[in-house]
Amino acid sequence: MPTYVYRCRECRHEFEVRQRITEEPLKACPLCDAPVERVIFGNGVIFKGDGYYTTDYVRQKSDPSVKEPAEK
């Protein structure tokens, strides 16, 4: 079951709830009974295994003072 994070619109209380995907989202804060909203997080995805190439990912430079060789 996924875990969802909710934030109260009034008291800004944040809490986690394990719910089924098919369940209705919560509507009230457990502390003050005000309306709540579901917090959306952006998750990164990294594919590993056969069929994926290292060029599929953005490369990070380890040291900005080191210059890469020029392409011919």
Number of helices: 0
| Portion in helices | under 10%
Please write the CATH class name of the domain at 1-41. Mainly Beta
**SSE string, helices as H and strands as E:** EEE
- CATH topology assignment of the domain at 1-41: Rubrerythrin, domain 2
- Per DSSP, what share of the residues sits in E-state strands of 2 or more residues? 15-25%
What kind of sheet is the major sheet? 3 strands, antiparallel
Overall mean pLDDT score? 81
Describe the protein's topology.
Layout: E1 3-8, E2 14-18, E3 36-39
Antiparallel strand pairs: 1-2, 1-3
Structural account:
With 72 residues, the chain is mostly beta strands. The protein has a domain of 41 residues: Rubrerythrin, domain 2. It is built from no helices and 3 strands. β1 and β2 form a beta hairpin. The radius of gyration is 22 Å and the shape is elongated.
Summarize this, please?
The chain has no helices and 3 strands. The chain has strands at 3-8, 14-18, 36-39. The model has no long low-confidence stretch (mean pLDDT 81).
Summary tags:
72 residues, mainly beta, Rubrerythrin, domain 2, elongated
